[in-house]
Amino acid sequence: MSIVVSNISKSYKTVKALKNISFEVNEGELFGLIGPDGAGKTTLFRVLTTLLIADEGKASVAGYDLLKDYKAIRESVGYMPGRFSLYQDLTVEENLKFFATIFGTTIAQNYDLIKDIYVQIEPFKTRRAGKLSGGMKQKLALSCALIHKPKVLFLDEPTTGVDPVSRKEFWEMIKRLQQKGITILVSTPYMDEAALCDRIALIQDGNILQIDTPEAIIKHYPKAIYNVSADNMYQLIESLKAYEHSHSVYPFGEFVHYTDKRTGFDPKQLKQYLEEKKLAGISIEITQPTIEDAFMELAI
Q1: Are strands 77-80 and 152-156 parallel, antiparallel or unpaired?
Q2: d(Cα 63, Cα 34) in Å, to the nearest integer?
Q3: Longest dimension (CA), the chain
Q4: Which residues make Cβ contacts (< 8 Å) with residue 245, sequence separation at least 6?
Q5: What crossing angle do the helices spanning 111-121 and 134-146 adopt, rounded to 10°?
Q6: CA end-to-end span of the chain, whole Å?
Q7: How many C-beta atoms surround the C-beta of residue 48 within 10 A?
Q8: Please, where are the H alpha helices in the chain?
Q9: Of 49, 40, 100, 104, whose CA–CA distance to 73 is shortest?
C-alpha cells in the first residue's frame, strides 16, 4: 500500500477536525477525498505530509512511518496546497529552480516528468508568479510539487477558483501523471470530479462516510430519485420539505431532487399535493443518482 491511515484523529481545541479516519490507497492509484469546505480534507493532508501531528492513530506514506520517518516522507511526497503558496515575487523559472535546489536536483534532471505541464507556462518563465492567471499558477505549483520526482502526490483542492477549461486541462494532467506510476491523493469539493478517480472517500465533519469506486457508490444508492420543477422554486422546496412522505429535498441545478419514504411512491400523488399548494408548471420525472446524491443521502 502506498498510503495507510489507521484511526487518525485531530482536534483544534474544542473542534474535532478528524474522527478516527481509516483508509488505504494502493500504489499508483488515483484516490479522491470528496467533501465540502470544513469537512477535514486539508487537515488530513497536513497530517499525512508531516506538517501537523495527529492526536491519535498512526499512518504510513510511501512505506514510511508518519512519526519515525517524517524526513523520508518529506523527500518522497509532493504537496500542492489549496492556497497558492509559491514565492510571488520570484519568476516562474526562479520558483522552479528554487524547489529543485531544495531537493538536491535540477529542472533538467526531472524535466521529462513536468514537460507536459511546464511547456504550457514556459513562454511566461520570466513573469513573476504573482502576475500569473489562476490556471497558470496551478500549473506552476504542480510543476514545483513534481520537480523532485515524488512517489506520492498530494493535491489539495487543485481546481478551486480556476475556470472550467483549466479544470479540464488540470485533470487531464493528473491522469497522465498517474500513468507514470505516481500515487495521487486529491481532494475536491466538486462532486463531478469524483467520477474521475479510481476510488473515492466521502468525508463530512471529520468522518469518512463511504469508500468505494464512484460507480459502486452510485449503483448502491438506495432510493428512486426524482427531478421536480415548478414555476416557483422557493415555494416548491418549502412545500416538498413539508410533505409528510418526503425523505430528502435539495436543489440540484434547475430542479429539486426529491426522494420519498414510501416504497410504492406514485408521482401523481405528489403532483396533486403540489397543485393544492397553488404551484403551477409542475414536472416530476425519475432521474439517475449522482455522487452528490449519494453524499447527501449519507450525510442525512
Answers
A1: parallel
A2: 24
A3: 72
A4: 260, 261, 262, 265
A5: 170
A6: 32
A7: 24
A8: 41-48, 70-76, 92-102, 111-121, 134-146, 164-179, 191-194, 214-219, 233-242, 267-276, 291-299
A9: 49
Burial bucket for residue 267 (CB in 10 Å: 0-12, 13-18, 19+): middle
Rounded Cα distance, 175 and 211, in Å: 20
CA distance 130 to 91: 8
pTM for this entry: 0.90
How many residues does this entry show for the chain?
300
Whole-number Å distance between alpha carbons of 9 and 21: 7
Angle, CA 114 vertex, CA 43 and CA 118 arms, to 5° = 100
Q: Is 196 exposed, middle or buried (0-12, 13-18, 19+ CB in 10 A)?
A: middle
For residue 74, what is its C-alpha cell? 518529506
Per the structure block, which three cell numbers stand in for 82?
489549496
Cell of 163: 475556470
Q: Dihedral sign for Cα 235, 241, 246, 248, please.
A: positive
Model confidence pLDDT, tens digit, residues 200-247: 999 999 999 999 999 999 999 999 999 999 999 999 999 999 999 999
Q: Which residue intervals of 107-161 are DSSP H helices?
A: 111-121, 134-146
**Is residue 58 pLDDT above 80, yes or no?**
yes
Task: Beginning with the edge strand found earlier in the chain, give each strand of the sheet holding 15-25 in spatial order.
Answer: 15-25, 3-12, 56-61, 64-65
**Which residue bears the cell 501531528?**
53
Residue entry with cell 516522507: 73
